[in-house]
Amino acid sequence: MTDLRSELDRALATVIDPEIRRPIADLGMIDSVEFADGRATIGIKLTIVGCPAADRIERDVREAAGSVPGVEEVEVNVAVMSVAERTALTERLQGARRREVQFGPETPTRIFAITSGKGGVGKSTITANLGVALAAKGLKVGIVDADVFGFSIPGLLGVSEEKPTRVGELMLPPIGFGVKVISIGMFLPGPATAVSWRGPMLHRTIKQFLSEVYFDELDILLLDLPPGTGDVAISVGQLLPHAQVVVVTTPQTAAADVAERSGLVARKTGQRVIGVVENMAGLPQADGTVLELFGTGGGADAAARLDVPLLASIPLSLALREGGDTGEPVVLSHPEDPAAAAILALAQRLLQPAR
Ligand SMILES: Nc1ncnc2c1ncn2[C@@H]1O[C@H](COP(=O)(O)OP(=O)(O)OP(=O)(O)O)[C@@H](O)[C@H]1O
């Protein structure tokens, strides 16, 4: 009997909360475990009423308990934590980071801010695919979509319908293809809503993302910045001065000017520009030639002006664009696509120790 009880505990210890990504046993979510006459009765406590992960947790508890030899029937009773229990949980999760900006200078998390001089150069598409590529390597990855005026990361990662779950003071971010994502788009009533905030409000929002979103330990944090040199770029520079900046540009030589400017703003806030990524480079044709739709040289030009390496040149790609529209990142759906391959190589390059 004692053996069976410890077998049950061991099995239940494998059940992970899909949002918090920790064993539910460690989160105080297993309330009671009883066993009599082949029947296991498990009481679980969810964090909030209507917890989106409820069905999955209940199913996983049922499966885990049912897998123990000797258990013929499983009953799962679901309740909700009291306010005091929930507060204790959020305090435990937040730990020392309570109300402070996570990922301070002491953080082991590597932070990359992806910026560009102007809009539409593919910055968000690259950020989303990079995140997925890094997560597919087994790293713990989070993305803060700080592109408040042109938020597109949730759509690119297939989580545009999802909202963060609020547990006390914490927000649990939705997870798309293994990447924890928070975006201003998740707080607006609908996709057609425009954001027209001034600097202080933008600063508060970014700060809130960095303090109240429960990312847990991350290996990599990516920030998708709005194009240009505006308030958000400066706020991120102040809040995360140790972030490493990657500048995205097109091959158009005229684009190098504005790309250089966004890199220079990052430097002014103390951030380090680690390189340039050229996107929308030549489109390979069926006859083997390459159509240089946006010209050539913009990436190398911007890199030379900023005195940093050109980290990648990503070709124009139908599969990349389609994957963005359907929310299926091309690095997973078509890793052999030349643009996907270039992003996968970029992910590998970013993992090399910072110099
Ligand atoms: N290499 C590429 N080949 C083909 N299409 C691309 C490529 N990169 C990006 N795109 C497409 O270009 C459009 C703009 O991309 P994206 O939204 O990522 O740009 P952005 O720089 O983040 O823009 P903004 O900052 O204005 O939101 C999207 O439709 C995207 O699918």
Automatic annotation (TrEMBL):
SUPFAM superfamilies the record matches: Fe-S cluster assembly (FSCA) domain-like, P-loop containing nucleoside triphosphate hydrolases
Keyword Zinc: no
Domain MIP18 family-like: 9-76
Residues bound to ATP: G117, K118, G119, G120, V121, G122, K123, S124
Transmembrane annotation, as ranges: none
Keywords on record: ATP-binding, Hydrolase, Iron, Iron-sulfur, Metal-binding, Nucleotide-binding
Source superkingdom: Bacteria
Database matches in Gene3D superfamilies: Fe-S cluster assembly (FSCA), P-loop containing nucleotide triphosphate hydrolases
Pfam families membership: FeS_assembly_P, ParA
Quaternary context: Homodimer.
Protein function: Binds and transfers iron-sulfur (Fe-S) clusters to target apoproteins. Can hydrolyze ATP.
Xref: PANTHER family: IRON-SULFUR PROTEIN NUBPL
UniProt family annotation: Belongs to the Mrp/NBP35 ATP-binding proteins family.
Protein name per the record: Iron-sulfur cluster carrier protein
Lineage: Bacteria, Bacillati, Actinomycetota, Actinomycetes, Micrococcales
